[in-house]
Amino acid sequence: MNEARDLSERGRAAFAARVWDEAFALLSAADRAGHLEPSDLDRLATAAYLVGRDDESQDIAARSFRGWLRSGDSARAVRRAFWLGLHLLLDGDETRGQAWLARAAELLPADGGEPERGYLLTPEALHRLDEGDAAASHAISAEVLAIGERHDDLDLVALGRLGVGQALVELGEVGRGVAALDEVMVAVTTDDVSPQLAGIVYCAVIETCQRVLDVRRAREWTAALTRWCDAQPGLVPYRGQCLVHRAEIMRLHGEWSGALDEARSACGFLDGSAAAGAAYYQLAELRRLRGEFADAEDGYRAASRWVADPQPGIALLRLAQGRVDAAAAASRRALEAAHGRADRSRLLGAHAQIMLACGDVGAARAAADELRVIDEVFAAPLLHAQAEQADGACLLAEGDAATALGVLRRAWAVWQDLDAPYEAALVRVLIAQAHRLLGEPEPAEMELETAAWMFDQLGAGPDARRARALSERAAARGAGGLTRREVEVLRLVATGMTNRAVATELFLSERTVARHVSNIFTKLDVSSRSAATAYAYQHGLV
Questions:
Q1: What is the C-alpha separation between 269 and 276, in angstroms, rounded?
Q2: In CATH, what number is assigned to the domain containing residue 40?
């Protein structure tokens, strides 16, 4: 008995110091040496969860729940059942998670049983948010926050404020929503909440910041999450999510080699859990950008085990493969399924690009205009850059190169400010096209040479080849046996222009353009404008 008491005391000390592997080992030994009180079983269940022993954590938590019931402390039993149910839900085990939450609800007294009722309201708020009813989620989360403040329960306050912030973002009140999330993070970074809640809050806040494309906050909170993980020996959950967030940020900043390492590590940490989908998606995105299309295909397929439709990555992969019709179908399907502003904003830039590739300028313009409206609501620099870029690309397709040039230069400036070299290089290619349409070949060549060099530095092989193929020198050599004039016509056709618009742009008759288009179809052995557009994208002519 003395041995069990000594092990328990040392285990509690390790738990308080957040040395989770030591706490788990000592409390497990104490459990084997003698009977643990429910409070120590709670600690052991939490430590087991934090060192990645999920199955053992669930079994120990169930024992703790029964221990609290036997002792007559139904309030503590409710809380234990809540945390067990919530972790199961977050891990994707909906059936068992809901069963534990239902058991907890049965134990609430008729008068409501605050603050335990507040905890059990939290999953309902999450469910309403997932169902797209942000207003109901906000109301429930506000009630959770009020209960937490009445009872000075800091975990409950954090859960309520987190829900309020997420709901406000979905309701379009991004400024107020992000301010609420900042308040939650203050409590987390000052260790005012329990460790099992802190990790959940870190990941939820970072994901929300990424959803609204608030790169600065996502970067800052990811750095804080990294420090939090590193300060806790033995911590396993949240390290994988931390690596995913780091990979996404490093990809944006052009650190592709390091991002690949982080994404691979995240896949190892998270494989088998619901969060693995995000890890495999990031890995696939990096491989697509590097031109490793077969590996990218494998990555998206792996992500699809947890993510219903990994978009816009798959649609952009199809575009890079020259399968323009497949890219357009995938992009349209993904956009139709996306309802909230945040979800749609993540797809619209790629959708505009793909619609231009398949010649549907009207659909591209609609996507660019919607992106502009969301940009005004979210007011995030990354989203603003995407909106300007999509608008500029549409203006090029519509034949207004002069206006496009000004818009694209603004987009480039924002990407530069965000330190996003790949996106900045993409815009420089569009700027080159604007210069060429304005009859300014020298600045066009300079932009293309710079863009190709930037793509080379990143390892973006397909984009580097496309930028070089767009140069006047490449055009002069021709492609697929096309004459220089036919290449010019094909480029404009690939932006979605009609024969009449091409004729106006090149100062030719509509009949001459029709003859050029017919010759292009014959030389390339294609039978439609979409197939010719696919060839142009495959061979770097657009």
A1: 8
A2: 1.25.40.10
